Amino acid sequence: MTTVSETPQKSMVISRRLRESIRLHLESIYPDKDSRALTRQVLEAFWGDGAVPRKRGRVAGNNMWSADNTYVITYGNSIIDGEHKPLSLLQDFVTENLKGVIKGVHILPYFPYTSDDGFAITDYRAIDSGLGGWEDIERIGREFRLMSDLVLNHCSSQSSWFNEFRMGHEPYKDFFFTASPEDDLSSVVRPRAHPLLRKVETADGEKYVWCTFSHDQVDFDFSNPDVLLEFLRIMRFHINRGVRTIRLDACAFIWKEIGTSCIHLPETHEIIRLMRLLADFSEESIVLITETNVPNVENLSYFGNRNEAHMIYNFSLPPLIVHALLTGTSQFLNAWQMAMPPAQMGCAYFNFTASHDGIGLRPAESLLSEDAISQMVETVKGFGGRVSMRQLSDGSMRPYEMNVSLFDALKGTVRGEDDHNIARFLCSQTIAMALEGIPAIYIHSLLATSNDYEGVEKSGHNRAINRHRWNYDALQEALADETTQHAQVFNAMRALISVRTRQPAFHPNATQFTLHLGEKLFGFWRQSVDRTQSIFAINNVTDETLEIPAMALNLIGGENWVDLISGEPVSDAKITFAPYQCRWITNKT
């Protein structure tokens, strides 16, 4: 891996406000260090390659995004053919099929790695040779807004950094967090069930390194400022290669302190505030998004006071949508939505229903009852899903996430499989597209990919069930056949996204209010920032045909109301919903 190097001093004009703001953050993170010297190092790390900061930082506002912002989430090798570079195939697929439909592409870690499908990185400045090269990444970045992962918490135990640590070489000998088996670690929040500490032999003797996620993923020690400085250099390196949205992976765990929970510590938030400050002073339009798979209230804290993440993953959404559609009741989904605060100006929710990981259950804690979670888990297992566990402080085990293709998770209801799979699945996607925030669609949801049991068997990991690799010829054949689930879902999704992107009321910061239409419907009202357009997004979460009187909605008199999805005009009489039908009823098309 590229070694840490001192960046030559560059001549650049730094505003006093920027310099002082950096210094104050550093004083909070490293009170025992020379904050002025560290400030110079931060400036050199982030701007020392010739880039220069803005004279003033960007002011948080609603002009950072618009209704046409949508991301697709994919691995670099989700599409293969055994002949061409996977990144080249990915570019061909998104350009040919999604150009003009979506704005952003999130390519999951595309660096050399040893495990966890890319999240045990060996070199943050290289491209996995099996995927392609930087020229492929930069090409995609020129056509779409590129999101890339900054895996802050850990790297591969086989990286050169960790090898240097074991040999006791500077500066890496203090790069990784160590503890003692005798330490009180009872309060540490665990996302996994394996032992937290791993014993390793080093030039300085036996040490126990901290491993939050696996023994191949060794945690960094951010109490060493050199670690932070190196990641700021990596951020700049990626920005210079076209990355404009930076995903801070597993950032909740980056600061450790023995005797605490080692999650969401004040220094963690302060580091993210520093990164936000640097992003806001960058000439490039940089957006930070935090990946914190935790209960809802904890997740919301990463907005800070409009000074941390620009976007946060809406982690509670996937389990709540799945529960509503499996049970036919929006009770819990409604309760959650009514309690959700609107994102602050300059912030946005990142609305997704499925990802490369499973459907997290921690974000559903306190939102779903234990019985509701158990019923959902058992139903999904009946549809071929798997369940991954985590260990609690008392040693007991608890479900951490459901591992399943979302399309297969919605094969039926708690009563079993039925014939509404496609309609139910599209309902889940339509809900997410209409909610306040920015939609993000996993490629295997876009393609209605089923459970990949062969992938699970080959890898031995539950998460492989939703990480299928499509042969490009087979994919094109499936999409060309309108009778396949893949073509039906893909075409419907493209049409929905295309409609969505033209509606001012779907701006990520447009007003939203929850409608009270009973438990069989999930509805909410969106209004554009300029108040010219209203959309009533109403979704039937049951397999029944339902009717509501038009007067149940506050349809403004004198306006012509129409359903954007079906194209049907809405009269003053009753509005009918087929099983799992969704309507976007608006006064302006």
From TrEMBL:
InterPro entries: GGa_phosphorylase, GH, GH13_cat_dom, Glyco_hydro_b, O16G_dom_2, Sucrose_GGa_phosphorylase-rel. Its EC number is 2.4.1.7. Residues 69-500 form the Glycosyl hydrolase family 13 catalytic domain. This is Sucrose phosphorylase. Keywords: Glycosyltransferase, Transferase. Pfam families: Alpha-amylase (PF00128). GO terms for molecular function: sucrose phosphorylase activity.
